[in-house]
Structure formats: structure tokens, C-alpha cells
Write a structure and sequence with these properties.
Length: about 500
């Protein structure tokens, strides 16, 4: 089985010093939650992000090689506004190709940043994205075929927010970094020296790679200072394959206010919420009582067909004591600053600016089967091989167009999983989830999506209002990144 401690070739010119005399690096838990810098992207020139290599100490005194967008790990939060162009230059200062996929944005295929839009080492790409979609929490990441998992794991990802004048009066907390807090949740694995470890062969490929420590914005189990009152958390599951089931350790309820692609029609009271890889949720938590709180997650195993489970991710937080038990681990802590009072004290009954589905009547139906048992199959993978995964019996090929769609025509897509559950993502649009395993899904509970959790079957209602050419098609794929890299992906044109 092959073990990758870092991207081969990304930092060929850097020497890596050994950590002499250190038996084991320890997590620096409890540090303040890092808040990514916020960059407003408008029509004027000058906005830029660069893929760079660097070093970061996740664990005490132990630096490791990482990637980031204009910083040592992850990237700044980019904010764009509906109805305005967003002019941005993406540079590549690495020694291998990258892309910048604008996950969730409704832009043409040639601006989407998929596998056909590679930015070579030393090159840059300037784009003006025309933003015309609802306010929401989106993200961006590299999407090079065969290397997406590795590059995202090492840091090439960041949040992207869209503001919309129609949602300006939604009555939600909106002071970025104060009562509107971004949270990119990831799991990572480290060697005893504190070096990032990544493995995409064998069983790590079959279930997707899972780490044993949880990071939020690049920090292990951090502490966020919050004002007394309502606080909005923008949660992104940025992990390669882990599924989270978030709740608060004291059992407090919160309100779910937005999904992948915009606000919900009204706040929904919940005590837990599940997010598969690439899914987002905005939740509002009331800290008015001044009590500290701990956000935790269940260690969710991957469901398999027939009722079985593919193994859990191992002991989270590296046995550091932050685990709540064998099935629950701590994600982050919140400390209330009584000297600050939140701007929002109560939530509205309905949310202004929530998108209303208006897809029209579907003209056709398509079926997509997510295949695990291709190539050498699961048994080969168990012994260190690398099987081909696929969709509808075909593993991804760059030069093959799998589907041809018509601009503006509504369709029903049925997605099925043959061995285990998968998060299924479609580029270039948002969709409505109609049913799961034959049961109707209420739009008020899910909102518009660009990732659907497929545990059996799911039906989605979908339409594309942007074009995609054969030389820059859109993708559909499993968002377990190791599955995507191994071929569980297809591509399509819209004309």
C-alpha cells in the first residue's frame, strides 16, 4: 500500500528538516478559531489568489508541508454579489497543474474550473464571473483529475459567499467573523512527527480517506469567542470522505437557515444535522444564556447496501482526550464574551430572499448508477490495488462526453448506489431533491442543493441555464474525492 506524506513534485526544491528527539507531536487544541480573511471580489481588476506551497504547524512544534491559496493552508473567503461581475485572477506557483473549481456557482463550463481547465505551473487565469444566483455559502477548490483528493487534502480549498440584495433583510446575523462565523471542518491524519499523511490506495480508496483528527479552519478543536445572542455558523464539510452528524454536547437546539444553494423558506429547529462531503449548512445558535458550548459529531460509518457498514474512521483527535466516547468526538468549543451583545436577538418566522423552486415540467428522465465493483473490484483494493470506479459501468475519461443536455430544459435524474452511500455532486447548477428511496422530500427541509446524499436511490429535479462546450464540459461525480479520482465521474455538455 502506498503512503503519501505530501504531493509528489509540489515542493521538489524544498529540504524537509527532520524532527530529532521528538517522540510524538501533540495537537495544539484549544487555540482561537482562525477566521479566514474576507476579500470582496468586484468588477475592478486587482483581486487575485495564488496556489502556493508552504509549511504549517498543526501540532505542537511540528511543521509539515501544505498547500494554500495565497496563504499557508486553505484560502481567504471570497465574497461576490448577485447582479455584479466578479473579476479574479488565479495564479499557479506550484510545480504541478491546478484548477479553481467554483463549487456551486452557475457559470459556463469554461469558467467552472473542472478537469479540462488546468492552470499550468507558472501560469495564471483571469476570469470575470457573472453572478446571478441566490445568497449562500459556496466554496472553491482544485479539481485536477486524479489529484483532486491529494490537492484538497493538503489545503487547496476555501469558502465563497454570495450576497444578494433580496436577502439583505433576512434578519440573520451578518457581521463576518463576529456573529457570522465560517467553519471549514476537515479530518486529517498525522505521523508521529506531525507530518500530514495521505493514502489513496486499497481500503482508503474504497471508503475514501479518513483522518483521525478534526480541524476547523485548519486548527485542531479550536475555541471560538462569540457574543451573547444569536450567532450564525456557516458549516462546510471540507473532508475528503467523512460524514459528520453535528450537535451540541449540552443538547441545545439550533435553527437551520440555509443549505447548499441558499436560504430555506423558514428557520427549522433542529438538535442535530448531518453533512456529507461538500455539503454546506448555515445554522443559527443562541448563546444569550452565556454558557459555553461544545460542538460535537457522531463518528458516522459509511452505510453499505444490504444494511452493512463500512468501517468507522478510527479514533478521532488522535486519542488526545477530546473524544466524547467511541462514537462521538469534539469539533469546536464556543466561549461567550459577555462584553459583546449580538445584533440579532430573535429570528424571523420566514427568511427573505429564500429561492423558490421554479423548474417547470420535466421533459425527460436520466439514470445514473454509481459503480464500485469495476476493474479489479473490492477484493483487489483490499490488497493494495487501485480499481477503476465508475458511473453507469464506465470509468471517467477526459475525451468522452457521457451526456448531452439542452439549455433551459428540466429533467429528472435518478441516482442509485450499488454498494455504499455516496454524496453526488453536479456542476453548473442547483437542483431540488424530489425523493430518497421512493419517499418524497419536502423542499422546506432541504432547500436547493448541489450535493445529494445517495443511500440507495435519490431523484432530483434539475435544469441548466448556462452552456458547457465539449472542450470544457460540466461534471457529475461522487464527492468522496478518492472515488472521483478513481473514475466515479462523468461529463456532459449543455447547448
Amino acid at each position: 500500500m502506498r503512503r503519501r506524506d505530501f504531493l509528489s513534485g509540489a515542493l521538489a526544491s524544498l529540504a524537509v528538516p527532520a524532527l530529532v528527539g521528538r517522540a510524538s507531536a501533540q495537537a495544539v487544541a484549544g487555540q482561537p478559531l482562525p477566521i479566514p480573511a474576507l476579500i470582496d471580489i468586484g468588477e475592478e481588476a486587482g483581486s487575485r489568489i495564488d496556489a502556493i506551497a508552504g509549511r504549517k504547524a498543526f501540532l505542537d512544534g511540528a511543521e509539515t508541508q501544505v498547500l494554500g491559496w495565497s496563504q499557508d493552508y486553505l484560502g481567504p473567503t471570497l465574497r461576490m454579489r448577485r447582479g455584479r461581475g466578479a473579476r479574479i485572477t488565479v495564479g499557479n506557483r506550484l510545480e504541478q497543474g491546478i484548477t479553481a473549481h467554483w463549487h456551486g456557482l452557475h457559470v459556463p463550463g469554461w469558467q467552472d474550473g473542472g478537469p479540462h481547465s488546468v492552470i499550468a505551473p507558472g501560469r495564471e487565469l483571469e476570469q470575470t464571473l457573472e453572478i446571478d444566483q441566490p445568497a449562500g455559502t459556496y466554496w472553491y477548490h482544485s479539481h485536477v483529475h486524479g489529484r483532486t483528493g491529494e490537492q484538497v487534502y493538503h489545503g487547496l480549498a476555501g469558502l465563497l459567499l454570495i450576497d444578494d440584495s433580496e436577502a439583505a433583510d433576512a434578519g440573520l446575523p451578518s457581521d463576518y467573523g463576529v456573529d457570522d462565523i465560517p467553519m471549514i471542518v476537515q479530518d486529517r491524519s498525522f505521523s508521529r512527527r506531525g507530518e500530514l499523511r495521505y493514502d489513496d490506495d486499497g481500503m482508503a480508496l474504497m471508503q475514501g480517506f479518513r483522518g483521525d483528527r478534526v480541524l476547523v479552519n485548519g486548527a485542531p478543536t479550536p475555541v471560538a469567542g462569540v457574543p451573547a445572542g444569536m450567532v450564525r455558523l456557516r458549516l462546510l464539510n471540507g473532508s475528503n470522505s467523512r460524514v459528520y452528524r453535528f450537535r451540541f454536547a449540552d443538547g441545545r437546539a439550533f435553527h437551520h437557515v440555509a443549505s447548499d444553494a441558499g436560504l430555506l423558506p423558514a428557520p427549522l429547529r433542529r438538535t442535530e444535522i448531518q453533512l456529507a462531503p461538500a455539503e454546506r449548512a448555515e445554522v443559527v445558535v443562541d448563546f444569550a444564556n452565556g454558557h459555553p458550548a461544545r460542538l460535537v459529531s457522531a463518528d458516522v460509518p459509511m452505510p453499505m447496501m444490504g444494511g452493512g457498514m463500512m468501517g468507522r474512521g478510527g479514533m478521532m483527535n488522535g486519542g488526545s482526550g477530546a473524544s466524547e466516547g467511541s462514537d462521538v468526538f469534539e469539533v469546536a468549543r464556543f466561549e461567550v464574551d459577555q462584553g459583546r451583545v449580538a445584533r440579532v436577538a430573535t429570528l424571523p418566522a420566514t427568511l427573505a430572499g429564500a429561492p423558490r423552486p421554479d423548474f417547470g415540467e420535466p421533459l425527460r428522465r436520466r439514470s445514473f448508477r454509481l459503480d464500485m465493483m469495476m476493474g479489479m473490484g473490492m477484493m483487489g483494493a483490499m490488497f493494495g490495488g487501485k480499481p477503476d470506479l465508475g458511473i453507469n459501468g464506465k470509468s471517467y475519461e477526459m475525451d468522452r462526453i457521457d451526456q448531452q443536455l439542452r439549455l433551459g430544459e428540466t429533467e429528472i435524474w435518478e441516482i442509485s448506489a450499488d454498494m455504499m452511500a455516496h454524496p453526488f455532486h453536479v456542476h453548473g447548477t442547483s437542483f431540488q431533491v424530489m425523493s430518497r428511496n421512493g419517499r418524497a422530500v419536502d423542499h422546506a427541509e432541504t432547500g436547493l442543493k448541489d450535493v445529494v446524499w445517495v443511500d440507495g436511490t435519490a431523484e432530483i429535479l434539475i435544469r441548466f441555464d448556462q452552456p458547457a462546450r465539449p472542450d470544457a464540459p460540466y461534471m457529475y461525480h461522487c464527492h468522496i474525492l478518492e472515488h472521483e479520482d478513481a473514475g466515479m465521474m462523468g461529463q456532459f455538455t449543455v447547448s
